[in-house]
Amino acid sequence: MPASMDRPPAGHPFEGDPVFDLHVAGKMAIRSTAPLEGAADLSLAYTPGVARVCEAIAADPEMTRHYTWVPNTVAVVTDGTAVLGLGDIGPAAAMPVMEGKAVLFKQFGGVDAVPICLATTDTDEIVETVARLAPSFGGINLEDISAPRCFEIEQRLKERLDIPVFHDDQ
User: Fold this and answer.
1) Which of 19, 67, 91, 116 is 20 to 30 A from 55, alpha carbon to alpha carbon?
2) What CATH architecture applies to the domain 69-167?
């Protein structure tokens, strides 16, 4: 990662503030669970070895539960319209809260979580976007979406998806 993306420039207004220091470059990272120490490992984790796993899943989609991160991964989805006590702050400003929620999932539940901040407040677009992302996750946590839309979004996704969908804010 370029240094400019890692730390704010010297003399920024929050320099030395422990809250901002904790949030530098976000609170999360993705790491490999597979060893990648050489060409042999790479050929197992990626090509050509991964093709065998893909074919097994294509033949039996239930294999996804055994050979991908899907069953232990939740999408934490927001549109940024009802963030904590901050209200409608938008998707970009909501990211630190979504990262925080994802960290809580990991720390206290052992569940990997991916924060997703959507640049739309349209109910139909949110439902469609989440439904299209759903095959990558074992569950959907709707977070900080304003009422009453959050109830409709949750209900429609529960009816449409075959994975858990929950919204714990309301």
Assistant:
1) 116
2) 3-Layer(aba) Sandwich (3.40)
